[in-house]
C-alpha cells in the first residue's frame, strides 16, 4: 500500500505542480490584461483575453526594440535608474537571469566541467563565461582563469569559484541536464555524461 501511494505521488506530483505553476502564471497575466481592459471600459471579457492582450503587448515591445531610437531611449532610462543602488542590484540580477534564458543566436558559453577536489573526488561545475573581469585577473596569479559555478542541490543558489582552465575536465553534457543533475543531488540521471578526450 505504501509503495503504491509513493509511486502515485512521485509520478503525479511533478505533473500537478508544473501544471499548477503554469496555470497560476496564466491567471496572473490574464488578470493583468483584464485590468488593462478595465481601464478602457471593457469589463466583461472571457478568460484568456487578458493573457492574449499581454502577449500582444510583449510582441509589440519586441518589435519596438528593433528600432534604434527606442533602444537608445530605453538605454538612457536604464542608465538613469541604475544610479539608484537598490534598483541597480535588483534590476541587474533580473536582467542577468533573463539574459541566461535568452540565448538565441548566441554561442552557449555555459560548459559543463569536472573539477578535482583535495580529497581526490570531483565536483560538477559550469563555466559561465569565457572571460574573467579585469580586476580579478589583475589580482590573481598568472594563468587562464575562468569563473566556474558550483550549483547547490535543491537550491537556486550556488558558489562561483575562479579555476585555472587547464585544471578543468570538459564534459560532453548539456548545461540543462547537468544543472538538473546538480539541483537534484544526482537523483536525475536522464542523460549520462561523457568526458571529452
What does this protein look like?
By secondary structure, the chain is α+β, with helices and mostly antiparallel strands. The protein folds into two domains: 100 residues, no CATH class; 85 residues, no CATH class. It has six helices and six strands. A hairpin with a 6-residue loop joins strand 3 and strand 4. Helix 1 packs across helix 2. The N and C termini lie far apart (48 Å).
Layout: helices, strands, pairs:
Blueprint: H1 2-39, H2 49-64, H3 68-81, H4 85-101, E1 111-116, E2 122-127, H5 134-139, E3 145-151, E4 158-164, E5 168-172, H6 175-183, E6 194-195
Antiparallel strand pairs: 1-2, 1-5, 2-3, 3-4, 5-6
Helix pairs in contact: 1-2
Shape: flat
Uncertain spans: none
Count the domains. 2
What pattern of helices and strands is seen along the backbone?
Answer: HHHHEEHEEEHE
β-strand percent reads 15-25%
Strand element count:
6
- Provide the spatial order of strands within the biggest beta sheet: 4-3-2-1-5-6
Percentage of residues in helical conformation: 40-55%
Q: Whole-Å distance between the termini? A: 48 Å
Rg (C-alpha, Å): 23 Å
* Largest sheet: number of strands, sense, barrel closure: 6 strands, antiparallel
Broad structural category: alpha+beta
Chain-averaged pLDDT: 80
Count every helix, treating DSSP H or I runs of 4 or more residues as helices.
6
Transmembrane segments: 49-74
Keywords: Membrane, Transmembrane, Transmembrane helix
Protein name: DUF502 domain-containing protein
